[in-house]
Amino acid sequence: MSADPTQGLFFRDALLVDPEALRESRGHLLVEGGRIAAIGPDLTPPEGARVIDCAGRPLAPGIVDLGVKIGEPGERHRESFGTAGRAAAAGGVTTIIARPDTEPAIDTPEVLEFVTRRAAASAPVRIRHMAALTKGRAGREMTEIGFLLDAGAVAFTDCDRVVTDTKVLSRALAYARSLDALVIGHPQEPGLSKGAAATSGKFASLRGLPAVSPMAERMGLDRDIGLIEMTGARYHADQVTCARTLPALERAKRNGLRVTAGVSIHHLTLNEFDVGDYRTFFKLTPPLRAEEDRLAMVEAVASGLIDVICSMHTPADEESKRLPFEEAAAGAVGLETMLPAALRLHHAGQVGLARLFRAMSYAPAQLLGLEQGRLAAGAPADLVLFDPDVPFAMDRFALRSKSKNTPFDGQMMQGKVIATFVGGLCVFGEV
């Protein structure tokens, strides 16, 4: 149900999840003019404000999802700005950071301006775009980073196409450094990773699947860290998934390099055995890892070594998934399932709510220079009210995304969004 964003909103008796201060506390929150006006345990609703009784349920900053694939332009049959926006609102995601791996790639200011207009006209949530690091994502010539920044690009990445020419990458990083632009890399050694559908080990051997060693990720990150040390650029590793990669990440941070890292919700909550009998909804890039790696990623999120949790939302149509495992498209949708999947870590006592939302909201917003992701006076009223304890069975056909390729189909999950607000406007839910 929509409401006038200029009308005051008063959230009464909420569990306020503050990811900036890493604190959870009972209290009230007042929204005026689309922004958070006040927070505290002793507030009273001003005259004329609409009161929402939270009954002790969590109220947190809306999720800022870094790395969402949307099919516009070129693959609108998989996902549109409208369907992605509605899925995001239902999942508590208030800001989508869209990837440039479209057809054509978002590699010129003209394409960027086109998708920016389309997104603003079609989606109920905020959508910001990353731009390609090299033209056509081909790894041969860097894009016009300065012009793309002026047109609104928040970061630069070739997504899962690793730039193999080290000289091209070093030049792009040096130029990005001169503009303080963020470069997002995909840490994989491309030769070893080519054609892989699983992580090497006994399971992949028994299933006869082409596999890649976890060392391919470590080698990819080591190369990128060397270039970051040489150029001084800002760098974010989009997905760190292996325990062997973490020492290199920790050393880079300890040495003062401007390096951050993310992990997808699927690599935090699933492992290689979930592939089972060649279930293609579990085919991801990078592939699902061993349980020991998954647990190491959870601990790295809890400690803050890994900064960002993302959905890595990658829609795929039925035809591209109904193929033998090796040939099937990689990726899974995650805009609507990210929050309930993340709450598995909360219910298991592994990661607290404030730390989860630091990784899902505050850290990605800070990384990209956005004012979202905070529960503080003056911040945009991009909020999610949810009940972490409601159980439900995931039905992929109930998802709002055009594509239904979720690995959580049929699984029991816990935690549902009650309402989502963008700038004080209710974009999902009935409150």
Q: What is the correct CATH architecture of the largest domain?
A: Alpha-Beta Barrel
Structural class: alpha/beta
Instruction: Give the oligomeric state.
Output: single chain
Average of per-residue pLDDT values: 96
Task: Please tell me the total number of domains.
Answer: 2
Strand content: 15-25%
Task: Note the run of SSEs as H and E.
Answer: EEEEEEHEHEHHEHEHEHEHEHHEHHHEEE
> Biggest sheet, open or closed, and with what strands and sense?
8 strands, mixed
Helix content: 25-40%
- Number of helices, where a helix is a run of at least 4 consecutive DSSP H or I residues: 13
CATH superfamily of the largest domain: Metal-dependent hydrolases
* DSSP E strands, number: 17
The coarse silhouette is: globular
The unreliable regions are none
Name of the CATH class of the largest domain: Alpha Beta
Protein name: Dihydroorotase
Pfam family, one: DHOase
Domain Dihydroorotase catalytic: 56-238
GO molecular function: allantoinase activity; dihydroorotase activity; metal ion binding
Q: Could you characterize the architecture of this molecule?
A:
This protein is of the alpha/beta class and 431 residues long. It has two domains: 9-59 and 381-392 and 412-429, Urease, subunit C, domain 1 (Roll); 61-368, Metal-dependent hydrolases (TIM Barrel), CATH 3.20.20.140. Helix content is 30%, strand content 23%. It contains 13 helices and 17 strands. The strands form four sheets. Strands 1, 2, 3, 4, 5, 15, 16 and 17 form an eight-stranded mixed beta sheet that branches. A four-stranded parallel beta sheet has the order 9-12-13-14. Helix 4 (166-179) packs across helix 7 and helix 7 runs parallel beside helix 8 (246-254).
